[in-house]
Design goal:
about 110 residues, about 30% helix, about 15% strand
Length: about 110
Amino acid sequence: MTKLIYVFLGLAVLAVVAQFLLTPVEVVAPGEDEPVACTMDAMQCPDGSYVGRTGPNCEFVCPALPEVADDLQAHIDSKADLIQLASPVPNGVIGSPLTLSGQARGYWF
């Protein structure tokens, strides 16, 4: 009876060792499932807003500037030499009170 217990115990140990050696190990490349921790840097975008690092490569992503229609851009370009503003800049953030600075050409002012 004792001999039978040792045989079954030996077969069980052999089965566990065989299972351990024959089971393929799943290798996961580092960084695929791990969360990315970005530094808390900030950058000012051309439109005046601030953004932080985002995405898997921790890059700065500025919002896209609004598109100006072609007919409106042609009108703006035709009047470009009459009034030149130094501030506020185009597509910039403005505050209250609004202060304009720049130059005007002509005698109408």
